[in-house]
Specification:
Structural class: alpha/beta
Number of helices: 26
Strand content: 5-15%
Radius of gyration: 31 Å
Helix content: 40-55%
Length: about 750
């Protein structure tokens, strides 16, 4: 993947707005300015739980996401931003007012969990998203997340696209209906956008073209500002009889499908030799309308082709849009040559995935699940292609047949595919009527211009940090986990139902108690944060105390009983699914502890005078590390049992405290203590590392008198005198002594 250009200040600012604020963002830019590069960068570098959606199937596959309709389970048709539909509607499509829309969608339990956990929604090719579709997304998000106060239910939106390229598809009949409710069909006319205007950032550095004169012409075409002199110069490239020399490969860009298909069919028939057909390999679910390549690829030796995918290997032998010629071909193999390059490139089939997002309860992360795949040679016939299909591609040479352009932005998209005018030939003249640009786009462009973006970023960073601190005291998600667990097993016909309900309801009650205390502390937290620098030292002091209090109660009041129950149940047969559910509970507690620890670290940084931007950058890294550790521990538990415990033990032997180890490994202290307990059992760690000699002396005789008693029973007898860890330490030491004497 192309690396992010840190020299471009807008790239860095956009990165900061996404990762360090809750602002909705509209990232735009001229063709070739790096919008797709930024999309891929963010999906690899954000700490937020995100999903990528796009308005069409092909755009979704190329962006590595899902279509908007599929993700939100939206029925096809038109959404009306009113509670009920009144009067006759002239439309061939179904029409859904708000109530009807919500009654039509069917979102299952897993999807609801995913949407409630969602922090960032990335919408690619937003220029093609209709206003009513964006409003429908807002309605669904608010409904599922039960948050009607914030736009999109509190989910941050990153919208990427260029309004001057391809517009939303709207039929004449639909226009009559949509214009009763919306000024334009574009996303910025959505009702939700009126009170939730996104921050607009425009990537300004053009990577595709270097010729300033050509860039100037493109800007004029983009904004429909060409004059007679510009058109005369542009039409100087007109050549109706041009025939490309065999040494140079040209592609024809057409305004209509039938023109491109006719050219490709004609040229392929003219070639001598055998016609080869290659069928795509399709597995699972893959919508035919979203296939990124031909389901049946027809080729002959000498055919001009274009690659439709980047080479993901180390050699980068081809890229999306590179043109070549079929030099060798048989039933199993295709060899490609390129003008000016030596040798033959033998290609293999590439695979595109149809994914669905799901929520992994065991790790707390949003993951991609492959529903199906489409494998085909990554090429298509390339004597001609439609302008629509060329969006996002780059060509060295092209013949433009754009005189019959019929929609906004087509001429601009076609011209902007070229690196320079040296490779331009016009098959038809470009008239002023062919350069279609919606005047409302220019009006919107001017409205969205904002000054002092850096000041806005700094302000939103402060607001975001405040939100992070407030969320550290939010216990509702943890309570939901225990509530769902209890409800699920309350009516199950399993032998351990009563035990499951007890552990679930006990943990829920403890979480509620901690929630009530956190609610009171949250008020103090906000007051001290809003007081600014003079309140930061006290804020840090109070947050440190809060962390110690909640950590201890989470570990001893919730996590330790779950662990105790887990160890008891893992000795029984057919417990795999139940143990996985218990693992979800443990992960939820670990996440809650991590969030409070992050808040403590942030307030400590504030008290030391550290910059908020640096603190949020560190937050990004610790969140990603925690997410990675969660996935890693879940995947490797069976394969590398003991590795994690050994790492904690080695760090302890190096002189690090339990708290220091927990912080460095992004784990809670109870987990580190459980790691060390194993080495007491094996005799590698002294028992007094985790329990004082005085407490050891009190516990040892009581445990020896009743060797079969559980940890919970002993804890219940002694109350707050001993922690679960201290009791386990003595019990493990007794086990070691018995094993050693035996």
């Amino acid at each position: 993947m192309k690396a992010i250009d840190q020299s471009d200040a807008i790239f860095s600012m956009a990165d900061s707005f996404v990762n360090q604020t809750n602002c909705n963002l509209f990232l735009t830019g001229k063709a070739g300015s790096g919008k797709t590069t930024f999309l891929h960068y963010i999906t690899r570098h954000t700490h937020k739980k995100f999903v990528v959606v796009a308005p069409t199937g092909v755009a979704a596959i190329n962006a590595g996401g899902m279509t908007i309709h599929s993700f939100f389970q939206l029925p096809p048709g038109i959404y009306i931003p009113e509670a009920r539909l009144t009067g006759l509607q002239d439309s061939l499509n179904a029409v859904y007012p708000q109530n009807a829309l919500l009654s039509k969608i069917r979102i299952n339990k897993q999807k609801r969990k995913l949407i409630r956990k969602l922090e960032l929604l990335i919408v690619d090719e937003v220029s093609m998203v209709r206003a009513d579709l964006l409003d429908a997304m807002d309605v669904v998000l608010k409904s599922v997340r039960k948050n009607y106060r914030q736009a999109f239910g509190g989910v941050q939106l990153l919208m990427i696209g260029d309004l001057y390229q391809l517009p939303p598809v709207v039929t004449d009949l639909d226009k009559n209906l949509l214009y009763r409710y919306y000024e334009t069909p574009y996303f910025f006319s959505a009702r939700i956008m009126k009170n939730s205007v996104p921050v607009r950032l425009e990537l300004e550095k053009i990577h595709r073209q270097q010729d300033e004169k050509f860039i100037g012409l493109l800007n004029k075409v983009r904004h429909n500002q060409v004059n007679d002199t510009d058109l005369k110069w542009l039409n100087g490239f007109y050549d109706l009889d041009f025939r490309p020399p065999s040494s140079k490969k040209y592609i024809t860009l057409c305004s209509h499908h039938y023109k491109a298909n006719a050219i490709n069919d004609h040229e392929l028939k003219q070639l001598p030799g055998k016609l080869y057909r290659y069928d795509a390999d399709i597995t699972g679910e893959f919508n035919e309308s979203a296939t990124p390549a031909d389901q049946t690829l027809s080729l002959k030796k000498g055919a001009q082709i274009m690659f439709i995918k980047n080479d993901m290997g180390e050699e980068k032998r081809y890229y999306n849009g590179k043109i070549g010629m079929v030099a060798e071909i048989d039933d199993d193999e295709i060899g490609i040559t390129f003008p000016g390059e030596e040798g033959i490139l033998y290609i293999e089939k590439e695979t595109w995935k149809n994914i669905r997002y799901s929520f992994d309860e065991s790790t707390g992360n949003i993951i991609e699940k492959e529903l199906g795949s489409f494998s085909q040679f990554p090429v298509r016939l390339a004597w001609a292609i439609t302008i629509h299909k060329s969006q996002g591609l780059t060509f060295e040479r092209a013949i433009l047949d754009a005189g019959d352009s019929f929609t906004s932005g087509q001429v601009y998209v076609a011209l902007s595919r070229l690196r320079s005018l040296d490779g331009l030939v016009l098959r038809t003249r470009i008239e002023k009527k062919s350069i279609i640009s919606d005047w409302k786009l220019q009006e919107q462009h001017e409205v969205q211009q904002r000054d002092n973006l850096q000041d806005l970023l700094d302000e939103e960073r402060r607001n975001y940090l405040r939100d992070v601190l407030v969320r550290s005291m939010d216990w509702e998600l943890l309570m939901d986990v225990f509530r769902e667990f209890t409800e699920e097993y309350k009516d199950r016909e399993v032998t351990y139902r009563e035990e499951a309900v007890i552990i679930g309801s006990t943990c829920l009650q403890k979480a509620k108690e901690l929630r009530d205390i956190a609610d009171k502390f949250r008020v103090q937290l906000v007051i001290l944060y809003d007081a600014g620098e003079q309140g930061f030292p006290k804020l840090s002091e109070r947050m440190e105390a809060a962390y110690e209090y909640f950590r201890k109660n989470l570990e001893e009041g919730i996590l330790d009983p779950i662990k105790d129950h887990y160890h008891l149940m893992e000795k029984k047969i057919r417990m795999r699914k139940y143990l996985k559910h218990l693992q979800v509970l443990k992960q939820a507690v670990a996440t809650r502890t991590m969030q409070i620890r992050q808040a403590r670290d942030l307030t400590a940084g504030l008290a030391k005078g550290e910059k908020i931007s640096g603190l949020l950058g560190a937050l990004n890294e610790t969140s990603k590390k925690f997410s990675h550790e969660s996935e890693k521990s879940t995947k490797l538990t069976k394969q590398k049992k003991g590795d994690s415990q050994r790492m904690s033990f080695q760090m302890y032997r190096q002189g690090k405290s339990v708290e220091e180890i927990a912080r460095e490994r992004s784990l809670n202290q109870g987990t580190i203590e459980s790691h060390l307990l194993e080495f007491i059992r094996e005799g590698e760690l002294e028992v007094f590392s985790l329990v004082s000699e005085e407490k050891y002396g009190k516990l040892l005789p009581r445990i020896k008198q009743n060797p079969g008693r559980s940890v919970s029973a002993i804890k219940y007898e002694f109350g707050e005198q001993f922690t679960y860890t201290e009791i386990r330490a003595v019990m493990n030491y007794i086990t070691y002594l018995q094993k050693d004497s035996g």
